[in-house]
């Protein structure tokens, strides 16, 4: 895990990478945000374990969970593995709190598979967090959301971002997540960009602004 820990940091972001990537793969995105040095923020970029991925012919790669297919919601994310990953990130949140980072000063962010785990964790976390940022992603176990949504998550600042031309996680899957969150009484921000399954400069500017708003004095 990459742990960027500047002196006097009171805020933290947990960044969760996508399938086949690593924490190191997300580090350039964090650097590109060029967050102000006068607001020191700790960035934690954990690695998913290596596991066989069904849609990739069973080849092993870093992944938070297995994907059998995208046609049915139950195939998009192995629920047992999603819950195990959620436990891993919850443990990281507990560690941060023990080190002096209040939960309300911590954002969970993720891209693609990482966004699935970020949302699954944040929406069930029992104490208020600073925010949830999801990029090019969807919901795991969507039918369980209403029953498992924590009281703390009902006021959670949420931002979803998606590429209009995403051919990996189709835009409709992001819209489905947005609509399910709204049906649960939440109010996610929504941003679309003329891009595929990737990041772009306008999106990075929006990520930067959203994070700064979450950590404003």
UniProtKB/TrEMBL annotation:
Family named by the database record: Belongs to the AB hydrolase superfamily. AB hydrolase 2 family.
One Gene Ontology molecular-function label: hydrolase activity
Phospholipase/carboxylesterase/thioesterase domain mapped to chain residues: 7-211
Ranges in coiled-coil conformation: none
UniProt KW keywords: Hydrolase
Pfam family, one: Abhydrolase_2
Record bears the keyword Iron: no
Protein source organism: Aeromonas molluscorum 848
Lineage: Bacteria, Pseudomonadati, Pseudomonadota, Gammaproteobacteria, Aeromonadales
Protein name in the entry: Carboxylesterase 2
Gene3D superfamilies for the chain: alpha/beta hydrolase
């Amino acid at each position: 895990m990459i742990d960027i820990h500047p002196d006097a940091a009171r805020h933290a972001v947990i960044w969760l990478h996508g399938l086949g990537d690593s924490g190191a793969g997300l580090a350039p995105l964090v650097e590109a945000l060029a967050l102000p040095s006068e607001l020191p923020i700790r960035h934690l970029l954990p690695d998913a374990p290596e596991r066989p991925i069904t849609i990739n012919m069973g080849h092993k790669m870093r992944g938070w969970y297995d994907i059998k297919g995208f046609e049915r919601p139950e195939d998009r994310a192995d629920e047992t593995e999603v819950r195990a990953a959620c436990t891993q990130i919850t443990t990281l949140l507990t560690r941060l709190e023990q080190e002096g980072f209040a939960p309300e000063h911590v954002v969970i962010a993720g891209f693609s598979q990482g966004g699935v785990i970020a949302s699954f964790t944040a929406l069930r976390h029992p104490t208020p967090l600073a925010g949830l940022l999801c990029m090019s992603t969807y919901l795991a176990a969507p039918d369980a959301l209403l029953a498992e949504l924590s009281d703390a998550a009902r006021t959670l600042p949420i931002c979803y971002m998606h590429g209009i031309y995403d051919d990996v996680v189709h835009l409709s899957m992001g819209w489905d997540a947005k609509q399910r969150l709204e049906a649960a009484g939440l109010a996610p921000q929504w941003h679309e960009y003329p891009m595929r399954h990737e990041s772009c400069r306008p999106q990075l500017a929006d990520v930067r602004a959203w994070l700064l708003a979450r950590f404003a004095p």
